[in-house]
Amino acid sequence: MYQDSAVQPSRIPAFAIAMALAVVLAFVVAALAFGYVELKDRAVTSSQITDGAVSSDAIADGTIATADMADGSVTSAKLANGTVSSANLSSNAVTSAKIADGAVTDAKLAADSVASGNIADGTIVTADLADGSVTSAKLASGVITTTGLTTGSVTTATIAADTILATDIAAGAVGTSELATNSVTTAEIAADTLV
Questions:
Q1: Taking a C-beta distance cutoff of 8 angstroms, is the pair 19, 27 a contact?
Q2: For the whole model, what pTM was predicted?
Q3: Which of 12, 47, 141, 194 is 20 to 30 Å from 117 by CA-CA measure?
Q4: Residues 6+ apart with CB under 8 A from 39
Q5: Phi and psi of 183, rounded to 5°?
Q6: What is the CA radius of gyration of the chain?
Q7: DSSP 172
């Protein structure tokens, strides 16, 4: 006859305890697998789940909410191509550094969006100017010199009335054919010039 408390835990071999626990665990696992034992709803808490034990297959589709994600956990590698739209961007989020060189084409520019301050000095060349785009209002005073005029470009219609002076006429340039009938009077003839 054993006395109460006659078997002390210290007298039970460690392997016997381990075997007993293994048998109990095996029964529990088998009971869960065959549905003999059911877990209560919400019975498993995060402290009972081993790190890395929950795989994608265990997560129901569409159940990961914003609150479930740690700040900064969504990296560029997690984004599928083409998923970030204009609605996902905060105001003023796209800076110059975020724009690839050559990415801003003519089609991306709004009408009248390029101002003088956006154009580097000395970069507008002849090919950039549309035909007829340079009007007299665009010309600074005195910029057209003799070298800027093509041969025969100055016609009677382009000369203002009373602007041709004697100094503008080359020596011997005015002949009989240039004189109107009765245009030469006595006052125009120098003394002692008629022989």
A1: no
A2: 0.42
A3: 141
A4: 32
A5: -80, -20
A6: 50
A7: T
